[in-house]
Amino acid sequence: MRTLRWTFAVYLAAVLVVTCWPSPESTAAPGWALAVVDAFRAVGLPMTVVFLEAASNVVMFLPFGVLGLLVLTGTGARGDLAAGLTRGLWRRAGLVVLTGFVLSLAIELTQMLIPGRYSTVQDVVLNTTGAALGAALTVGFFAVRRARPAPSAT
């Protein structure tokens, strides 16, 4: 459980660095984003910088939903994951999503004070969506694990 909490703390620190680091006053897409778009287009997949940015906001908060729910339920790598379903897992998932929303809102409000950063309501919605997807995937994992028959000892 300690490793899980540390992993979550490191993840949160990384999110804060990525989202709150001052950036140059420029509206041009960063070089890495253009390279990713070009790579997708090179293999025949349509991609735009706008879509990449939106998808990045969702993906950035997926771990929030997963790790937040695991920390909240107290289930570590060796814990009884299926037991989480009997302890109000959906209510806890909702709490994780709400917390993801509050964190995203706080980040966006903070970005209003940081040079070169632009806050948008879209980012809050997409980050919250990522947290919700992460929590839902975790609940789904718990459900599958619980539904799976126990291995027979032979």
UniProtKB/TrEMBL annotation:
The chain crosses the membrane at residues 51-72, 93-114, 126-144. InterPro entries: Teicoplanin_resist-assoc (IPR053150), VanZ-like (IPR006976). Keywords: Membrane, Transmembrane, Transmembrane helix. Residues 8-139 form the VanZ-like domain. This is VanZ family protein. It comes from Oerskovia merdavium.
